[in-house]
Design brief:
alpha+beta; Glutaredoxin; 4-stranded mixed beta sheet; globular
Length: 85
């Protein structure tokens, strides 16, 4: 199974939807809350090439974007193969 990392904030609805989707698929993930952690926020921005919004999702170190991007991958049938790698 792929390593999944997700940068989140506690009050973010898209973060909750992304975590729910991953959980429904049986995927375990590492969650990095950035709401009160400036160091993690800077790390997220660096890894996401300037992305400042949450969630920012990575699969095996590859930045796939936010919830809408992950959802589009899923609808196209491309997410499950990435997660199974």
């Amino acid at each position: 199974m792929a390593k999944v990392e997700i940068y989140t904030k506690a009050t973010c609805g898209y973060c909750m939807m992304a975590k729910r989707m991953l959980s429904r698929k049986g995927v375990t993930f590492e969650e990095y809350p950035v709401g009160s952690d400036a160091t993690k926020f800077e790390e997220m921005k660096r890894r996401a090439e300037g992305g400042r919004t949450v969630p920012q999702i990575f699969i095996d170190g590859v930045h796939i974007g936010g919830f809408d991007d992950m959802n589009a991958l899923d609808k196209a049938g491309n997410l499950d193969p990435m997660l199974a790698a």
